């Protein structure tokens, strides 16, 4: 059975003439006092309805009885009646308004009585015929609690609340429906004065009863007695007023009004000592009911745990305590809200009866039960308040309904007013486990929350700064690694790139975008760019930096490293360009342009990287080394035959002719053509590498010195000198051809072109050629032809140098002749 039905059942037993039927409805019956027969009034859904029917009928009977009784008592109360009749003239009609829910019937009775010259309030007090049988102590009508039925037959002859004293005066007494105590109103000379005083007080009490009825469902007087009459006029005696004031600051235990105007309820589990959230409710009554219901559940659990004897002991202790706190009873017994909300009286009566059970005693009267209940509540209130203050964390929510998101959390943070022993209140944050606002209004919790916020903000700032610092460190680390390429030993292995890894993820060569003016801090994010996406296979900068690297050589313009990359699996040659004052955007533009011009004898860059300090170029590593290495035999140790040399010259001439033609408009010559930049691929075909890497500002090759002997090494490219720059490539190619023919290498100690020219001047032409070529039996004629082309290319005057197309054509002719001679000799040998 749920708490509500329990309440109603218990309630039913309190209504006179009402009983609960097997079908669950409530039957009402009353005894007709005239016919002396029991009259069935019907069955009703609620005990209240049944009670109303009963009371209505009862009033009807009372009205019918009035004339009969009046006749019977006329002789005895003649003087009283006349006095009352006078009083009736004085009493305002509002005071004559009959009380209780059965107003219609009572009104008619009052009117009839008035018509008969009889004050309906100066009526006899009689025992309810039906109640008499039941032996109940209920009131005779709905609200008129002061007209307590009694079996005292002497009362029949007395006026309501007015007693004639021995000294001939009239004393007035009224029963306070709130405290259930009789209030002495004083001694009066006349019955009219006494009666007036009585009715004056009575009307006040009646108003309170009516207010109670308006606010809630109809209640009997016993119920209303327990409620705080907030909002009623305060013309009652000072004791009552004082009581009301005290009630204003009292709260229902476990019920709190939140800022949304709703009521929340929570309870402390007496066993686990944890707070349980019971939910949010529209009315305080609902909240209180949930609280009481849960509390009773707990009490049952507790009482089930404790042996009966302990219960009795506890009761006797509490009973003793009851006496001690009796003085406070009137304060405790009315737990009302400031907002005027009240505890459901049904629930109270239920609680009284449950308290009775829980206390394990036979509390004789309803009054005793009521006091015991409130004493019990006070005790519980103190316990729960203590528990609330001790509890820091709200843990158990199983017993409660689902919280309203946000709102409840807010409540838990922002706190709820909790009354602490001593009468003061604190706003208590369950989440913080601290009072937020004490009864002096100090903002304890807010200060703590503020401090916590400051700490959080400081932590955020600290984290951001750390992240920035990390980025910087990463940048520096990357720079160091790059520098290590340059300054390390011949064999450098990069092992620790943790920082690069952290910061350089998702970056690197796979990005097709190229940044312009790069900042060091973003080194691994957008500055490493792959120019040939189809070749990179997901190559990333951090993988490149992580991979073992080996220095291949260091030249004027930087160093080249052989990098064995694991992911993707490929061997790369990374050129770090030194001191190239080209801007990032220009570099990017140039790399993109070069990437578009492809020739089989020109090695394309796989990727490039640019920052303010660094410019890197990544190529596929060529296993067969450079022309320089072949000429000196340190690549294979094998003889470098004439036909191969001629093929290389032809291939380079073709490639150079193509590149010059394509890049003429962009004014991008090779700029640093030399035998170390002619690589041999797996088919031993020549590949020009590092094409277009040097800007005008960086050109400082020996041929340029020859070309511009009077100028410094640094000069800008203009329309006028652009052609000259391409002619410098032809000079450089001339030197390469000389190297192929002589087997000698241009270096700082030898200006090959000058040496060849001087030898030729002496007409010792044969002395020029590489001995291995002579030994090989290479055609002297075609060697001389190639020598003449080379000498033309290394002419001091750029204008005197042939164009690259002419060079390529001449070499091609020589090669054709050579091929033909080979064919002829092959066919001759076949004939022989
Ligand atoms: N892709 C490559 N594969 C194999 N070897 C390479 C590759 N690129 C360059 N090399 C070799 O690396 C060595 C160093 O090259 P580097 O360009 O630093 O020398 P350099 O041309 O003499 O110097 P600089 O270009 O600064 O004047 C050279 O022997 C060159 O042949």
From TrEMBL:
<feature type="compositionally biased region" description="Polar residues">
    <location>
        <begin position="99"/>
        <end position="110"/>
    </location>
</feature>
<keyword id="KW-0238">DNA-binding</keyword>
<dbReference type="InterPro" id="IPR001245">
    <property type="entry name" value="Ser-Thr/Tyr_kinase_cat_dom"/>
</dbReference>
<dbReference type="InterPro" id="IPR036955">
    <property type="entry name" value="AP2/ERF_dom_sf"/>
</dbReference>
<feature type="compositionally biased region" description="Polar residues">
    <location>
        <begin position="136"/>
        <end position="149"/>
    </location>
</feature>
<feature type="domain" description="AP2/ERF">
    <location>
        <begin position="251"/>
        <end position="313"/>
    </location>
</feature>
<dbReference type="GO" id="GO:0003700">
    <property type="term" value="F:DNA-binding transcription factor activity"/>
</dbReference>
<dbReference type="Pfam" id="PF07714">
    <property type="entry name" value="PK_Tyr_Ser-Thr"/>
</dbReference>
<dbReference type="InterPro" id="IPR017441">
    <property type="entry name" value="Protein_kinase_ATP_BS"/>
</dbReference>
<keyword id="KW-0539">Nucleus</keyword>
<feature type="region of interest" description="Disordered">
    <location>
        <begin position="92"/>
        <end position="149"/>
    </location>
</feature>
<feature type="compositionally biased region" description="Basic residues">
    <location>
        <begin position="314"/>
        <end position="325"/>
    </location>
</feature>
<keyword id="KW-1133">Transmembrane helix</keyword>
<feature type="region of interest" description="Disordered">
    <location>
        <begin position="302"/>
        <end position="327"/>
    </location>
</feature>
<feature type="transmembrane region" description="Helical">
    <location>
        <begin position="443"/>
        <end position="462"/>
    </location>
</feature>
<feature type="compositionally biased region" description="Basic and acidic residues">
    <location>
        <begin position="121"/>
        <end position="135"/>
    </location>
</feature>
<feature type="domain" description="Protein kinase">
    <location>
        <begin position="546"/>
        <end position="814"/>
    </location>
</feature>
<dbReference type="InterPro" id="IPR000719">
    <property type="entry name" value="Prot_kinase_dom"/>
</dbReference>
<keyword id="KW-0812">Transmembrane</keyword>
<keyword id="KW-0067">ATP-binding</keyword>
<dbReference type="GO" id="GO:0003677">
    <property type="term" value="F:DNA binding"/>
</dbReference>
<dbReference type="InterPro" id="IPR011009">
    <property type="entry name" value="Kinase-like_dom_sf"/>
</dbReference>
<dbReference type="GO" id="GO:0005634">
    <property type="term" value="C:nucleus"/>
</dbReference>
<protein>
    <submittedName>
        <fullName>Uncharacterized protein LOC104217818</fullName>
    </submittedName>
</protein>
<keyword id="KW-0547">Nucleotide-binding</keyword>
<dbReference type="InterPro" id="IPR046959">
    <property type="entry name" value="PRK1-6/SRF4-like"/>
</dbReference>
<keyword id="KW-0611">Plant defense</keyword>
<feature type="domain" description="AP2/ERF">
    <location>
        <begin position="14"/>
        <end position="73"/>
    </location>
</feature>
<feature type="region of interest" description="Disordered">
    <location>
        <begin position="219"/>
        <end position="248"/>
    </location>
</feature>
<keyword id="KW-0805">Transcription regulation</keyword>
<keyword id="KW-0804">Transcription</keyword>
<dbReference type="InterPro" id="IPR001471">
    <property type="entry name" value="AP2/ERF_dom"/>
</dbReference>
<feature type="domain" description="AP2/ERF">
    <location>
        <begin position="158"/>
        <end position="218"/>
    </location>
</feature>
<dbReference type="GO" id="GO:0005524">
    <property type="term" value="F:ATP binding"/>
</dbReference>
<feature type="region of interest" description="Disordered">
    <location>
        <begin position="66"/>
        <end position="85"/>
    </location>
</feature>
<dbReference type="GO" id="GO:0006952">
    <property type="term" value="P:defense response"/>
</dbReference>
<dbReference type="GO" id="GO:0004672">
    <property type="term" value="F:protein kinase activity"/>
</dbReference>
<feature type="binding site">
    <location>
        <position position="575"/>
    </location>
    <ligand>
        <name>ATP</name>
    </ligand>
</feature>
<keyword id="KW-0472">Membrane</keyword>
<dbReference type="InterPro" id="IPR016177">
    <property type="entry name" value="DNA-bd_dom_sf"/>
</dbReference>
